[in-house]
């Protein structure tokens, strides 16, 4: 009888301890999150929210932001040929960058995955090292290479292929070149990931069934790496459309893209509402890409598996 | 006098009871195996004893003191994990010394005890190595030394041999028993390998669906399984049916297996059908027309020391394992008619 | 023959890509040595003149120091609070977890320009002037996603039984964290810190909106300088930065092994 009472008491203590532990656990997790969450709410969410509000305000020549509410900023953008042209150019540069990145990344990723041991490490490092060097400096290198008396033009003229320098710098061409250079490592990493996941016995099976190496590549390897290409493309495209440094240095005001337009509206025109509206349209494009991507991904996982 | 007791211990995950009112008593210095298929609750029970999972009811008592409310770091139990769980950033010496350092043991003594422990697991000279420089078996020895060096009250082994290859597994299990007997530590050994459990345990707790089906010595478990599950889980069995022909004063009855008549000391009802289990190694084969069950040899498999005979009996199969020194496997040809005989004492009645 | 040809083609193609990758960096390094008053490649003659000339431009030195301070501050704070948040995300269950994870990952999706503009507006409204701290706050937000990705990755693959082993041997939760968990996720944490440092040091977009005339980070300084000037002084500054990166990489390699850093990135 007494033992039973004891057991009951113990159970009660146990229950209380458990409850205390659970609340402490909850508290622990919030304490761990608190600093990050606080910074994000105050210096990320709140500023973006205010900027979103600004994008619905009228322009005031004195203070930049007027007091009236309006949809005019968005309407102006979406019904103006010039601005739509900028939008189209941004998307076009993003698509071109993605396409070129795929074409030059795939062989490199393939070569690195095939390499073994030390060589593989060094090649990976070589491909990733540009990520560590300042983007401003890398773009500057392209300025030196592509300018009117730059390396490329000088070489072409010496060879006698052209008689006056080509306009390479401050064109869509130079922006795409610079972007590919900057974003290339992301694509390589993504493709490498999917190449490494391929079970080598699948390739052996294909060859065993009589397929040549080239046939094996196109009918087995390439389809299996499509998800990697796809993921890399989404990453490269969304980074390309939102990047600022490369188009600013290699395109300048001659090759206006959305990010540069935002910067220009805010810093030189001081038209904050319009700049904000352009910025949010840019966010919209980047987000749409990601959302469509994840929708497609879940669908492909449900239906015919790519992987 | 029991040293480690589980009293009505319960564990619930998402409203399913995975351990149901478990009671268990282990004597000091005893090696007890928890044996059962995966999902039987053996690892859950072990984790509750170690303190990694909290009990949802009941008590765990060690050496007369309840421990189920203590956090794992206060329970004084040594544990050896399935994947060894060595600290990868520490040398062998530091791994073994870790528990002693936490107990603020003086430096000189730490050294002495660590070296002694490594000596015991035959790893002297490996102090400066890192875990990744050791083989699986060596890692397991370090893990054992690390658990034992703190002189825990209870040693818990969570499927410690399952990541080793077959030969090493046998070596290691003998070594574990040897060390366990030398140190005299109360030990719980979780395994799903019945051969392992039979070989090393003082007693085995056979678990199934969160309950202990039977807890007994290996010999008892094997020869006198108390439940249907235990008979099927431990060792291999043939299932045969016999018909009661006669009963004698309630103590014995005569049974016929398709003409092979035997008197067994079990209670039976005349004309009823009884189900039995029969272990393959308990069956003998005779070629001559002696009293026995008439079967046909369908196939035989040479297994080294013994041969497995697969016998056809009506539409059913019967398996017999016979040592090659007892019966020359070349003697009987496949397709030949033979007689299967067994001692009626070896028939295990199926409990419904 | 049939096997050799595609392989040679592949190697040649890759070589061209590697040249493409190295080209702008090599060009910057070499043209910093030119004796001419303007940038030219290949350089005419060899001189270190443009490096000594840097001494007459103390503003570059100031910007360099500022960038280093901001990058250090960012790396330390972002790694510290990012690691804490990663532990919460991996080890605990709490309300709104998905939403919080998405929030702290979103700076990767939001164009930096927009974030820069938003921060500028917010700072000017609440009256925060350009300062190293104002920059560090912006950069923490840019770098937390990287830190958390790397730390979460090293925590997810973490074998909890090693922590259980430590507990079983008598270690309390603080000891388990500092003696076992932290040393084991070290490479992820350090990689996170390095990425945070580099991202902060490299950032032009957000800094461009926050800087004032006397608080200017190096990328902003270089960017504004080259809008108006085209002399080799920029190439010498850039070369120093490239060489510093190189030294940093060698140090990391020695301390950690670069393979490890990047291995944990994937």
Automatic annotation (TrEMBL), chain A:
Where's it mainly located?
Answer: membrane
Q: Known InterPro entries for this protein?
A: MetI-like, MetI-like_sf
Keyword hit for Ligase: no
Cellular localization per UniProt: Cell membrane
- The regions listed as transmembrane in this protein's record are 30-53, 86-110, 122-147, 167-189, 217-250, 270-293
All residue ranges annotated as the ABC transmembrane type-1 domain in the record: 87-293
Gene3D superfamilies per UniProt: MetI-like
Q: Which domain of life is it from?
A: Bacteria
Q: Is this entry keyworded Transmembrane?
A: yes
Protein family per UniProt: Belongs to the binding-protein-dependent transport system permease family. CysTW subfamily.
Task: List the protein's name.
Answer: ABC transporter permease
From TrEMBL, chain B:
What gene makes this protein?
potA
* Protein's UniProt keywords contain Transit peptide: no
Q: What's the short name of a Pfam family annotated to this entry?
A: TOBE_2
**Which residue ranges does the record assign to the ABC transporter domain?**
4-234
Gene3D superfamilies found in the cross-reference section: 2.40.50.100, P-loop containing nucleotide triphosphate hydrolases
- Family statement: Belongs to the ABC transporter superfamily. Spermidine/putrescine importer (TC 3.A.1.11.1) family.
Q: State what protein this is by name.
A: Spermidine/putrescine import ATP-binding protein PotA
| Recorded catalytic activity of this chain's protein | ATP + H2O + polyamine-[polyamine-binding protein]Side 1 = ADP + phosphate + polyamineSide 2 + [polyamine-binding protein]Side 1
Explain the purpose of this protein.
Part of the ABC transporter complex PotABCD involved in spermidine/putrescine import. Responsible for energy coupling to the transport system.
Organism, by scientific name, is Neobacillus paridis
**Keywords from the UniProt entry:** ATP-binding, Cell membrane, Membrane, Nucleotide-binding, Translocase, Transport
Task: Provide the E.C. number(s) assigned to this enzyme.
Answer: 7.6.2.11
Tell me the GO molecular function terms. ATP binding
The reply to whether Methyltransferase figures as a keyword in the UniProt entry is no
Q: How does it assemble?
A: The complex is composed of two ATP-binding proteins (PotA), two transmembrane proteins (PotB and PotC) and a solute-binding protein (PotD).
PANTHER family, alphabetized: SPERMIDINE/PUTRESCINE IMPORT ATP-BINDING PROTEIN POTA, SPERMIDINE_PUTRESCINE IMPORT ATP-BINDING PROTEIN POTA
UniProt lineage: Bacteria, Bacillati, Bacillota, Bacilli, Bacillales
TrEMBL record, chain C:
User: Which residues are in the ABC transmembrane type-1 domain?
Assistant: 64-252
UniProt keywords (A-Z) are: Cell inner membrane, Cell membrane, Membrane, Transmembrane, Transmembrane helix, Transport
Report the superkingdom from the record. Bacteria
Per the annotation, which location comes first and is thus the protein's main one?
membrane
Pfam families from the xrefs? Answer: BPD_transp_1 (PF00528)
Specify the protein's topology with respect to the membrane: Multi-pass membrane protein
Annotated transmembrane regions: 12-33, 64-88, 100-126, 132-156, 176-198, 204-226, 233-252
Location(s), subcellular: Cell inner membrane; Cell membrane
Family the entry assigns: Belongs to the binding-protein-dependent transport system permease family.
Protein name, per record: ABC transporter permease
